[in-house]
Amino acid sequence: MSIKFLTHFWKMAATRLVVALLLLLVAVCQGLEASKDVPVLVKTLQNLHRGPPKQTVLKRVNVQEKWITQKLDNFDAANTETYEMRYLLNDEFQAEGSPIFIYLGGEWEIESSMISAGHWYDLAEEHKGVLVYTEHRYYGESVPTTTMSTENLKYLHVKQALADVAEFIKSFKAEHPQLANSKVLLAGGSYSATMVVWFKRLYPDLVDGGWASSAPLLAKVAFTEYKEVVGQAFLQLGSQKCYDRIQNGIAELESMFANKRGAEARSMLRLCNSFDDKNDLDMWSLFGSISNIFSGTAQYQKAGDIEYYCNYLLSFNDDATAIANFAYWGWGMPSCVDARYSSTVEYYLWAVNYFDAGRPWYYQTCNEYGWYQTSGSRNQPFGTKFPTALYTTLCADVFSSQFSNEQINSNAAQTNVDFGGMSPDVENVYMTHGALDPWSPMGHGVAEGATLIAEASHCADFGSISANDSAEMRASKERLAELVREWLA
């Protein structure tokens, strides 16, 4: 065992011990509990930003957990602070000069199945590649600061994360001389698919090709198209009756609150007594959370899912009761439903010291992207009660008053300037979307050269080629395999 490895190991252990002790001290001094009930708006947003579906691992695979020292600020030479970034390594196919297959982590904790099974794993096996899964700063265990205060979150930005990946590639090759001249391929899903595209734009010489599944490219604050596609999924895969039940049930609940039947609606939805139906922010939080139950179902739907849930919705005698019961199930059937806006703010403030992954991602939306899935379009069945103002107000209340509506829009506009929006100007990146992926309106379509997979949704194409694949799904996977062969030729 080398002195360099031991030094790195003890440095990493000491750093993590200090962080743990500091967190414990904060908890004792401030009297904060180590766990906290999650308000339904936070819970439903977290569900929409979990990692890509885990792959089914069919054999024992030795995936190693590794760490690399990264700069806290990649763009300030005077700042010498560092942090430990985690990555997972599977070198079972490695040979001299193996290509490096990197799966990029996004706003989630990395896990071993993504480099132990699935299409990316199969391609690495075909080409005797080394598989790596990198963890994004501020997510999982790759947390570079002792708290997630707004001041500390200034080091959380996609440009910093992309620079981390660039440094990782250079360091990984330096530490493995047999891979010094290896070609590098990137893959990612959702936000990390966006990172694949943007990495190729910023660091084209470090990567030879990339696969971006479900990549949103255009930053947009009022992302009204999202709920439109969710509605289309229930219409196309369910039925007109199902779509109408959703639309009519939510409209009826809105009407009950507006026409002095709020007590009845609160009872149907099992809301906690503290909910205030005269408070716009509480109402917006409630109806945003209801819509997000349907969004989560559509975003991750597999064959038969929406048909099943539509049958459930249509089993009730009236529209409002169907929506209330579906929402209660989707919220996890608590003793009472906490849909208060103030609880959402309190939760995100609590997460300053308890490293909840919902807080850093929400910060990124305020600071870089927007992507607020609002009720601003009439071409969706989820009502009118969760406007953009819900999400922009939350930015200011959780992080800083500097996040005004004007500033958030300016931040999103700057992201589009930095990365080209719908015109990222990259080569050798294969982009795929499910045709019923609610995120697809923010990414490339067929006209721009992307592949749309019929009836599929978000990040649905990472599994191995299978007899269960549709013709379109199989064709897309085979096309990627052809491109990988070209990139590695």
UniProtKB/TrEMBL annotation:
Gene Ontology process terms (BP): proteolysis
Transmembrane segments: none
MF annotations from Gene Ontology: dipeptidyl-peptidase activity; serine-type exopeptidase activity
Name recorded for this polypeptide: Blast:Putative serine protease K12H4.7
A UniProt-annotated Pfam family: Peptidase_S28
Leader sequence residues: 1-31
Ribonucleoprotein keyword on record: no
Keywords, sorted A to Z: Glycoprotein, Hydrolase, Protease, Signal
Similarity-based family: Belongs to the peptidase S28 family.
InterPro entries: AB_hydrolase_fold, Peptidase_S28, Ser_carbopepase_S28_SKS
